[in-house]
Protein backbone atom coordinates (compact mmCIF):
# COMPACT_ATOMS: atom_id res chain seq x y z
CA UNK A 1 0.00 0.00 0.00
CA UNK A 2 1.53 3.30 -1.01
CA UNK A 3 -1.63 5.37 -0.97
CA UNK A 4 -2.16 6.25 2.66
CA UNK A 5 -5.22 8.47 2.14
CA UNK A 6 -7.81 6.07 3.64
CA UNK A 7 -5.61 5.33 6.64
CA UNK A 8 -4.97 9.02 7.25
CA UNK A 9 -8.69 9.79 6.82
CA UNK A 10 -9.60 7.09 9.40
CA UNK A 11 -7.08 8.37 11.92
CA UNK A 12 -8.30 11.94 11.49
CA UNK A 13 -11.91 10.82 12.07
CA UNK A 14 -10.84 8.95 15.21
CA UNK A 15 -8.94 11.98 16.49
CA UNK A 16 -12.01 14.16 15.89
CA UNK A 17 -14.12 11.96 18.20
CA UNK A 18 -14.76 13.72 21.46
CA UNK A 19 -13.68 11.01 23.92
CA UNK A 20 -10.80 11.50 26.31
CA UNK A 21 -8.35 8.87 25.01
CA UNK A 22 -4.90 10.40 24.53
CA UNK A 23 -4.11 11.32 20.92
CA UNK A 24 -1.35 8.72 20.58
CA UNK A 25 -3.75 5.97 21.71
CA UNK A 26 -6.26 7.06 19.05
CA UNK A 27 -3.54 6.91 16.38
CA UNK A 28 -2.29 3.49 17.50
CA UNK A 29 -5.82 2.05 17.76
CA UNK A 30 -6.74 3.16 14.27
CA UNK A 31 -3.62 1.58 12.77
CA UNK A 32 -4.58 -1.70 14.47
CA UNK A 33 -8.12 -1.48 13.07
CA UNK A 34 -6.75 -0.76 9.59
CA UNK A 35 -4.80 -4.02 9.82
CA UNK A 36 -7.82 -6.00 11.03
CA UNK A 37 -9.76 -4.60 8.09
CA UNK A 38 -6.89 -5.55 5.74
CA UNK A 39 -6.39 -1.93 4.75
CA UNK A 40 -2.80 -2.67 5.84
CA UNK A 41 -1.18 -6.13 5.83
CA UNK A 42 2.08 -7.64 7.10
CA UNK A 43 5.00 -6.33 5.06
CA UNK A 44 3.38 -2.95 4.27
CA UNK A 45 5.27 0.17 5.28
CA UNK A 46 3.88 3.13 7.20
CA UNK A 47 4.66 6.76 6.29
CA UNK A 48 7.68 8.17 8.15
CA UNK A 49 7.31 9.85 11.52
CA UNK A 50 7.62 13.26 9.88
CA UNK A 51 5.09 12.44 7.14
CA UNK A 52 2.56 11.10 9.66
CA UNK A 53 3.01 14.20 11.77
CA UNK A 54 2.41 16.48 8.75
CA UNK A 55 -0.49 14.44 7.31
CA UNK A 56 -2.31 14.16 10.64
CA UNK A 57 -1.50 17.59 12.00
CA UNK A 58 -0.23 16.19 15.30
CA UNK A 59 3.19 16.56 16.92
CA UNK A 60 6.05 14.19 16.16
CA UNK A 61 6.09 13.28 19.83
CA UNK A 62 2.50 12.03 19.54
CA UNK A 63 3.40 10.02 16.43
CA UNK A 64 6.44 8.57 18.18
CA UNK A 65 4.39 7.56 21.23
CA UNK A 66 1.82 5.87 18.96
CA UNK A 67 4.59 3.98 17.16
CA UNK A 68 6.09 3.00 20.54
CA UNK A 69 2.76 1.41 21.49
CA UNK A 70 2.52 -0.43 18.17
CA UNK A 71 6.13 -1.54 18.51
CA UNK A 72 5.60 -2.84 22.05
CA UNK A 73 2.46 -4.70 20.95
CA UNK A 74 4.43 -6.39 18.16
CA UNK A 75 2.31 -4.76 15.44
CA UNK A 76 5.18 -2.94 13.72
CA UNK A 77 8.91 -3.41 13.24
CA UNK A 78 11.26 -0.45 12.88
CA UNK A 79 14.15 -1.40 10.71
CA UNK A 80 17.48 0.18 9.98
CA UNK A 81 17.02 2.81 7.28
CA UNK A 82 13.83 1.19 5.98
CA UNK A 83 11.22 2.93 8.11
CA UNK A 84 8.36 1.25 9.86
CA UNK A 85 6.88 -2.02 8.59
CA UNK A 86 3.73 -3.88 9.63
CA UNK A 87 5.17 -6.97 11.32
CA UNK A 88 4.83 -10.38 9.78
CA UNK A 89 6.40 -12.04 12.81
CA UNK A 90 4.40 -13.99 15.38
CA UNK A 91 5.27 -13.23 18.98
CA UNK A 92 5.36 -16.01 21.53
CA UNK A 93 5.30 -14.61 25.02
CA UNK A 94 5.13 -15.73 28.60
CA UNK A 95 1.70 -16.69 29.89
CA UNK A 96 0.07 -16.50 26.44
CA UNK A 97 -0.28 -12.76 27.01
CA UNK A 98 -0.98 -12.44 23.33
CA UNK A 99 -2.98 -15.45 22.17
CA UNK A 100 -2.22 -17.00 18.81
CA UNK A 101 -5.59 -16.33 17.20
CA UNK A 102 -5.78 -12.74 18.35
CA UNK A 103 -2.30 -12.00 17.00
CA UNK A 104 -3.03 -13.56 13.64
CA UNK A 105 -6.24 -11.57 13.28
CA UNK A 106 -4.26 -8.42 14.17
CA UNK A 107 -2.12 -9.12 11.12
CA UNK A 108 -5.20 -9.27 8.92
CA UNK A 109 -4.83 -13.04 8.51
CA UNK A 110 -6.82 -16.20 9.28
CA UNK A 111 -5.75 -18.42 12.20
CA UNK A 112 -6.50 -22.13 12.44
CA UNK A 113 -5.61 -25.03 14.74
CA UNK A 114 -5.66 -28.74 13.91
CA UNK A 115 -5.49 -31.21 16.81
CA UNK A 116 -3.60 -34.30 15.66
CA UNK A 117 -3.40 -36.06 19.04
CA UNK A 118 -5.45 -36.09 22.22
CA UNK A 119 -4.08 -39.26 23.82
CA UNK A 120 -3.65 -40.53 27.35
CA UNK A 121 -0.13 -41.87 27.83
CA UNK A 122 2.07 -42.94 30.77
CA UNK A 123 4.36 -40.08 31.66
CA UNK A 124 8.12 -40.26 30.96
CA UNK A 125 10.76 -39.34 33.54
CA UNK A 126 11.39 -35.97 31.91
CA UNK A 127 7.71 -34.97 31.81
CA UNK A 128 7.17 -36.33 35.33
CA UNK A 129 9.93 -34.09 36.69
CA UNK A 130 8.37 -31.01 35.09
CA UNK A 131 4.81 -31.82 36.17
CA UNK A 132 6.04 -33.02 39.59
CA UNK A 133 4.11 -36.29 39.35
CA UNK A 134 5.28 -39.92 39.41
CA UNK A 135 6.81 -41.59 36.35
CA UNK A 136 4.16 -43.62 34.46
CA UNK A 137 1.26 -41.62 35.91
CA UNK A 138 -1.31 -40.83 33.21
CA UNK A 139 -1.01 -37.58 31.28
CA UNK A 140 -2.79 -36.20 28.26
CA UNK A 141 -0.56 -35.64 25.25
CA UNK A 142 -2.25 -32.92 23.21
CA UNK A 143 -0.60 -32.23 19.89
CA UNK A 144 -1.66 -29.62 17.39
CA UNK A 145 -0.53 -27.83 14.29
CA UNK A 146 -1.18 -24.11 13.98
CA UNK A 147 -1.91 -22.36 10.71
CA UNK A 148 -1.83 -18.82 9.37
CA UNK A 149 -3.81 -18.38 6.15
CA UNK A 150 -3.77 -22.20 5.74
CA UNK A 151 0.01 -22.35 6.00
CA UNK A 152 1.33 -24.48 8.92
CA UNK A 153 3.66 -22.45 11.17
CA UNK A 154 4.13 -24.42 14.41
CA UNK A 155 3.72 -27.79 16.07
CA UNK A 156 2.84 -27.79 19.76
CA UNK A 157 2.89 -30.71 22.20
CA UNK A 158 1.25 -30.20 25.59
CA UNK A 159 1.42 -32.62 28.51
CA UNK A 160 -1.32 -32.21 31.12
CA UNK A 161 -1.95 -34.38 34.22
CA UNK A 162 -4.91 -36.59 33.29
CA UNK A 163 -6.97 -35.56 36.32
CA UNK A 164 -7.08 -31.93 35.15
CA UNK A 165 -9.12 -32.72 32.04
CA UNK A 166 -12.64 -34.15 32.38
CA UNK A 167 -13.59 -34.36 28.73
CA UNK A 168 -10.84 -33.76 26.24
CA UNK A 169 -13.37 -32.98 23.51
CA UNK A 170 -14.31 -29.82 25.39
CA UNK A 171 -10.92 -28.34 24.48
CA UNK A 172 -11.31 -26.10 21.46
CA UNK A 173 -8.70 -23.68 20.08
CA UNK A 174 -7.28 -22.70 23.45
CA UNK A 175 -6.20 -25.10 26.19
CA UNK A 176 -5.98 -22.11 28.56
CA UNK A 177 -9.62 -21.16 27.91
CA UNK A 178 -10.53 -24.75 28.84
CA UNK A 179 -8.45 -24.50 32.03
CA UNK A 180 -10.20 -21.28 33.01
CA UNK A 181 -13.63 -22.86 32.36
CA UNK A 182 -12.63 -25.47 34.99
CA UNK A 183 -11.44 -22.79 37.45
CA UNK A 184 -7.82 -23.75 36.85
CA UNK A 185 -6.00 -20.43 36.53
CA UNK A 186 -2.62 -20.42 34.76
CA UNK A 187 -0.61 -17.96 36.84
CA UNK A 188 3.11 -18.39 36.33
CA UNK A 189 5.27 -19.83 33.56
CA UNK A 190 8.89 -20.89 33.10
CA UNK A 191 10.30 -21.01 29.59
CA UNK A 192 13.43 -22.39 27.97
CA UNK A 193 14.00 -21.22 24.41
CA UNK A 194 16.49 -22.69 21.96
CA UNK A 195 17.37 -22.75 18.27
CA UNK A 196 17.57 -26.07 16.46
CA UNK A 197 17.78 -27.42 12.97
CA UNK A 198 14.45 -28.96 11.92
CA UNK A 199 13.78 -32.67 12.29
CA UNK A 200 12.31 -34.59 9.35
CA UNK A 201 9.05 -34.89 11.28
CA UNK A 202 8.83 -31.10 11.69
CA UNK A 203 9.53 -30.48 8.01
CA UNK A 204 6.84 -33.01 7.11
CA UNK A 205 4.24 -31.52 9.46
CA UNK A 206 4.94 -28.05 8.07
CA UNK A 207 5.19 -29.10 4.46
CA UNK A 208 8.63 -27.52 4.17
CA UNK A 209 11.58 -28.66 2.13
CA UNK A 210 14.27 -26.11 2.78
CA UNK A 211 16.08 -25.93 6.08
CA UNK A 212 14.47 -23.17 8.14
CA UNK A 213 15.80 -22.99 11.70
CA UNK A 214 13.34 -23.94 14.43
CA UNK A 215 12.62 -21.88 17.54
CA UNK A 216 11.91 -24.43 20.28
CA UNK A 217 10.00 -23.13 23.31
CA UNK A 218 9.64 -25.42 26.31
CA UNK A 219 7.23 -23.98 28.82
CA UNK A 220 5.93 -25.09 32.22
CA UNK A 221 2.77 -23.43 33.52
CA UNK A 222 1.65 -23.31 37.15
CA UNK A 223 -1.68 -22.57 38.83
CA UNK A 224 -2.31 -20.06 41.63
CA UNK A 225 -0.96 -22.48 44.22
CA UNK A 226 2.22 -23.16 42.23
CA UNK A 227 1.12 -26.61 41.05
CA UNK A 228 2.29 -27.52 37.51
CA UNK A 229 -0.70 -27.79 35.17
CA UNK A 230 1.00 -28.06 31.77
CA UNK A 231 4.37 -28.75 30.22
CA UNK A 232 4.57 -27.89 26.55
CA UNK A 233 7.12 -28.16 23.78
CA UNK A 234 6.53 -25.83 20.84
CA UNK A 235 8.36 -26.08 17.56
CA UNK A 236 7.96 -22.81 15.65
CA UNK A 237 9.18 -21.69 12.24
CA UNK A 238 12.24 -19.60 13.07
CA UNK A 239 11.55 -17.22 10.19
CA UNK A 240 8.07 -16.38 11.51
CA UNK A 241 8.29 -16.45 15.31
CA UNK A 242 10.05 -14.47 17.98
CA UNK A 243 9.91 -15.18 21.71
CA UNK A 244 9.42 -12.04 23.81
CA UNK A 245 10.09 -11.63 27.52
CA UNK A 246 10.22 -8.77 29.92
CA UNK A 247 11.09 -8.35 33.57
CA UNK B 1 32.78 -40.45 35.95
CA UNK B 2 31.20 -43.70 37.03
CA UNK B 3 32.86 -43.98 40.41
CA UNK B 4 30.80 -41.73 42.65
CA UNK B 5 32.66 -42.53 45.88
CA UNK B 6 34.45 -39.15 46.24
CA UNK B 7 31.27 -37.21 45.45
CA UNK B 8 29.26 -39.27 47.93
CA UNK B 9 31.99 -38.89 50.55
CA UNK B 10 32.00 -35.08 50.08
CA UNK B 11 28.24 -34.83 50.39
CA UNK B 12 28.25 -36.98 53.55
CA UNK B 13 30.92 -34.74 55.10
CA UNK B 14 28.87 -31.65 54.24
CA UNK B 15 25.73 -33.21 55.73
CA UNK B 16 27.66 -34.03 58.91
CA UNK B 17 28.54 -30.35 59.43
CA UNK B 18 26.49 -28.89 62.24
CA UNK B 19 25.11 -25.78 60.53
CA UNK B 20 21.41 -25.25 60.01
CA UNK B 21 21.22 -25.34 56.19
CA UNK B 22 18.47 -27.71 55.06
CA UNK B 23 19.75 -31.13 53.95
CA UNK B 24 18.75 -30.61 50.32
CA UNK B 25 20.72 -27.35 50.18
CA UNK B 26 23.82 -29.15 51.49
CA UNK B 27 23.45 -31.83 48.82
CA UNK B 28 22.96 -29.30 46.00
CA UNK B 29 25.87 -27.12 47.18
CA UNK B 30 28.27 -30.03 47.28
CA UNK B 31 27.37 -31.10 43.75
CA UNK B 32 28.10 -27.53 42.57
CA UNK B 33 31.48 -27.60 44.35
CA UNK B 34 32.31 -30.96 42.81
CA UNK B 35 31.77 -29.39 39.39
CA UNK B 36 33.91 -26.34 40.21
CA UNK B 37 36.66 -28.73 41.33
CA UNK B 38 36.23 -30.73 38.08
CA UNK B 39 35.31 -33.85 40.02
CA UNK B 40 32.23 -33.72 37.73
CA UNK B 41 32.16 -32.09 34.29
CA UNK B 42 29.49 -31.24 31.71
CA UNK B 43 28.13 -34.45 30.18
CA UNK B 44 28.71 -36.59 33.29
CA UNK B 45 25.73 -38.40 34.77
CA UNK B 46 24.65 -38.41 38.40
CA UNK B 47 23.47 -41.56 40.20
CA UNK B 48 19.69 -42.05 40.06
CA UNK B 49 17.42 -40.55 42.71
CA UNK B 50 17.07 -43.95 44.37
CA UNK B 51 20.82 -44.61 44.32
CA UNK B 52 21.62 -41.18 45.77
CA UNK B 53 19.04 -41.71 48.49
CA UNK B 54 20.55 -45.11 49.39
CA UNK B 55 24.19 -43.99 49.15
CA UNK B 56 23.65 -40.84 51.25
CA UNK B 57 21.16 -42.25 53.72
CA UNK B 58 18.68 -39.40 53.11
CA UNK B 59 15.08 -39.53 51.91
CA UNK B 60 14.19 -39.52 48.23
CA UNK B 61 12.24 -36.31 48.85
CA UNK B 62 15.47 -34.62 50.01
CA UNK B 63 17.30 -35.89 46.92
CA UNK B 64 14.48 -34.69 44.68
CA UNK B 65 14.51 -31.24 46.26
CA UNK B 66 18.29 -31.01 45.78
CA UNK B 67 17.92 -32.00 42.12
CA UNK B 68 15.12 -29.43 41.73
CA UNK B 69 17.52 -26.71 42.91
CA UNK B 70 20.28 -27.89 40.55
CA UNK B 71 17.75 -28.10 37.71
CA UNK B 72 16.45 -24.59 38.38
CA UNK B 73 20.02 -23.24 38.52
CA UNK B 74 20.75 -24.82 35.14
CA UNK B 75 23.42 -27.12 36.60
CA UNK B 76 21.75 -30.38 35.58
CA UNK B 77 19.44 -31.61 32.85
CA UNK B 78 16.99 -34.43 33.43
CA UNK B 79 16.48 -36.33 30.24
CA UNK B 80 13.97 -38.89 29.10
CA UNK B 81 15.08 -42.32 30.31
CA UNK B 82 18.72 -41.24 30.64
CA UNK B 83 18.77 -39.95 34.19
CA UNK B 84 20.38 -36.74 35.32
CA UNK B 85 23.27 -35.17 33.42
CA UNK B 86 25.55 -32.28 34.32
CA UNK B 87 24.47 -29.59 31.85
CA UNK B 88 26.73 -28.48 29.05
CA UNK B 89 24.28 -25.78 28.01
CA UNK B 90 24.82 -22.10 28.74
CA UNK B 91 21.76 -20.29 30.04
CA UNK B 92 21.04 -16.75 28.91
CA UNK B 93 18.54 -15.13 31.19
CA UNK B 94 16.86 -11.81 31.78
CA UNK B 95 18.87 -9.21 33.64
CA UNK B 96 22.11 -11.25 33.51
CA UNK B 97 20.84 -13.06 36.60
CA UNK B 98 23.47 -15.68 35.91
CA UNK B 99 26.60 -13.99 34.59
CA UNK B 100 28.55 -15.67 31.82
CA UNK B 101 31.79 -16.17 33.76
CA UNK B 102 30.08 -17.54 36.84
CA UNK B 103 28.12 -20.06 34.78
CA UNK B 104 31.17 -21.26 32.90
CA UNK B 105 33.10 -21.73 36.13
CA UNK B 106 30.12 -23.70 37.50
CA UNK B 107 30.61 -26.12 34.62
CA UNK B 108 34.26 -26.63 35.58
CA UNK B 109 35.39 -24.67 32.51
CA UNK B 110 37.40 -21.52 31.76
CA UNK B 111 35.56 -18.37 30.57
CA UNK B 112 37.13 -15.63 28.46
CA UNK B 113 36.02 -12.47 26.67
CA UNK B 114 37.73 -10.71 23.77
CA UNK B 115 36.67 -7.16 22.94
CA UNK B 116 36.93 -6.65 19.20
CA UNK B 117 35.31 -3.21 19.01
CA UNK B 118 34.89 -0.26 21.35
CA UNK B 119 33.93 2.43 18.83
CA UNK B 120 31.87 5.59 18.93
CA UNK B 121 29.43 5.65 16.01
CA UNK B 122 26.39 7.71 14.96
CA UNK B 123 23.28 5.84 15.95
CA UNK B 124 21.02 4.24 13.30
CA UNK B 125 17.23 4.67 13.28
CA UNK B 126 16.69 1.19 14.71
CA UNK B 127 19.12 1.67 17.61
CA UNK B 128 17.82 5.21 18.23
CA UNK B 129 14.27 3.91 18.64
CA UNK B 130 15.40 1.34 21.21
CA UNK B 131 17.60 3.77 23.15
CA UNK B 132 15.02 6.56 22.79
CA UNK B 133 17.60 9.05 21.52
CA UNK B 134 17.86 10.96 18.24
CA UNK B 135 19.11 9.35 15.04
CA UNK B 136 22.84 10.11 14.55
CA UNK B 137 23.46 10.83 18.24
CA UNK B 138 26.72 9.22 19.39
CA UNK B 139 26.63 5.72 20.83
CA UNK B 140 29.33 3.26 21.81
CA UNK B 141 29.33 0.06 19.81
CA UNK B 142 30.94 -2.55 22.03
CA UNK B 143 31.52 -5.88 20.36
CA UNK B 144 32.99 -8.97 21.97
CA UNK B 145 33.46 -12.65 21.45
CA UNK B 146 32.96 -14.99 24.39
CA UNK B 147 34.90 -18.19 24.91
CA UNK B 148 34.53 -21.37 26.91
CA UNK B 149 37.79 -23.33 27.26
CA UNK B 150 39.22 -21.25 24.37
CA UNK B 151 36.32 -22.17 22.06
CA UNK B 152 34.27 -19.18 20.81
CA UNK B 153 30.57 -19.56 21.66
CA UNK B 154 28.91 -16.18 21.11
CA UNK B 155 29.26 -12.75 19.55
CA UNK B 156 27.69 -9.85 21.39
CA UNK B 157 27.10 -6.29 20.16
CA UNK B 158 26.09 -3.66 22.71
CA UNK B 159 24.96 -0.13 21.92
CA UNK B 160 25.25 2.36 24.79
CA UNK B 161 24.52 6.13 24.72
CA UNK B 162 27.96 7.78 24.62
CA UNK B 163 27.31 9.96 27.67
CA UNK B 164 26.95 6.87 29.90
CA UNK B 165 30.57 5.80 29.46
CA UNK B 166 33.39 8.06 30.68
CA UNK B 167 36.37 5.90 29.82
CA UNK B 168 35.66 2.87 27.71
CA UNK B 169 38.91 1.24 28.82
CA UNK B 170 37.47 0.90 32.31
CA UNK B 171 35.07 -1.75 31.00
CA UNK B 172 36.46 -5.18 31.78
CA UNK B 173 34.64 -8.51 31.41
CA UNK B 174 31.25 -7.17 32.44
CA UNK B 175 29.55 -4.04 31.08
CA UNK B 176 27.03 -4.31 33.91
CA UNK B 177 29.77 -4.22 36.55
CA UNK B 178 31.00 -1.03 34.87
CA UNK B 179 27.49 0.44 34.92
CA UNK B 180 27.14 -0.33 38.62
CA UNK B 181 30.52 1.31 39.34
CA UNK B 182 29.04 4.49 37.81
CA UNK B 183 25.84 4.19 39.87
CA UNK B 184 23.85 3.20 36.79
CA UNK B 185 21.69 0.33 37.95
CA UNK B 186 20.28 -2.01 35.28
CA UNK B 187 16.77 -2.70 36.57
CA UNK B 188 14.51 -3.99 33.83
CA UNK B 189 15.05 -5.75 30.51
CA UNK B 190 13.01 -6.56 27.40
CA UNK B 191 14.14 -9.43 25.22
CA UNK B 192 13.26 -10.73 21.77
CA UNK B 193 14.62 -14.18 20.99
CA UNK B 194 14.74 -15.79 17.57
CA UNK B 195 16.36 -18.66 15.68
CA UNK B 196 18.37 -17.93 12.55
CA UNK B 197 20.74 -19.65 10.21
CA UNK B 198 24.30 -18.38 10.76
CA UNK B 199 25.76 -15.59 8.64
CA UNK B 200 29.21 -16.02 7.11
CA UNK B 201 30.53 -13.42 9.57
CA UNK B 202 29.23 -15.43 12.54
CA UNK B 203 30.76 -18.67 11.24
CA UNK B 204 34.06 -16.87 10.74
CA UNK B 205 34.08 -15.30 14.22
CA UNK B 206 33.30 -18.66 15.78
CA UNK B 207 35.63 -20.69 13.58
CA UNK B 208 32.79 -22.96 12.54
CA UNK B 209 32.22 -24.65 9.21
CA UNK B 210 29.05 -26.65 9.65
CA UNK B 211 25.69 -24.97 9.85
CA UNK B 212 24.73 -24.70 13.52
CA UNK B 213 21.55 -22.71 14.11
CA UNK B 214 22.00 -19.39 15.90
CA UNK B 215 20.01 -18.23 18.91
CA UNK B 216 19.68 -14.45 18.49
CA UNK B 217 18.83 -12.49 21.65
CA UNK B 218 17.99 -8.80 21.31
CA UNK B 219 17.79 -7.15 24.68
CA UNK B 220 17.04 -3.62 25.87
CA UNK B 221 18.04 -2.72 29.44
CA UNK B 222 16.62 0.13 31.50
CA UNK B 223 17.80 1.93 34.64
CA UNK B 224 15.78 2.56 37.80
CA UNK B 225 13.99 5.51 36.18
CA UNK B 226 13.09 3.48 33.07
CA UNK B 227 15.71 5.15 30.85
CA UNK B 228 17.27 2.84 28.24
CA UNK B 229 20.97 2.26 29.01
CA UNK B 230 21.86 -0.52 26.59
CA UNK B 231 20.55 -2.26 23.50
CA UNK B 232 22.34 -5.49 22.69
CA UNK B 233 22.24 -8.11 19.97
CA UNK B 234 23.71 -11.46 20.94
CA UNK B 235 24.43 -14.24 18.49
CA UNK B 236 24.85 -17.50 20.38
CA UNK B 237 25.67 -21.04 19.22
CA UNK B 238 22.26 -22.72 19.19
CA UNK B 239 23.75 -26.05 20.26
CA UNK B 240 25.22 -24.52 23.44
CA UNK B 241 22.79 -21.84 24.59
CA UNK B 242 19.26 -21.73 25.89
CA UNK B 243 17.33 -18.57 26.81
CA UNK B 244 15.43 -18.89 30.09
CA UNK B 245 12.58 -16.71 31.30
CA UNK B 246 10.12 -16.83 34.12
CA UNK B 247 7.16 -14.77 35.22
From TrEMBL, chains A, B:
Keywords: DNA-binding, Transcription, Transcription regulation. GO terms for biological process: negative regulation of DNA-templated transcription. SMART domains: HTH_GNTR, UTRA. The keyword Kinase does not apply. One of its GO terms (molecular function) is DNA-binding transcription factor activity. Pfam families: GntR, UTRA. Residues 21-89 form the HTH gntR-type domain. This is GntR family transcriptional regulator. It comes from Photobacterium proteolyticum. The lineage of its organism: Bacteria, Pseudomonadati, Pseudomonadota, Gammaproteobacteria, Vibrionales.
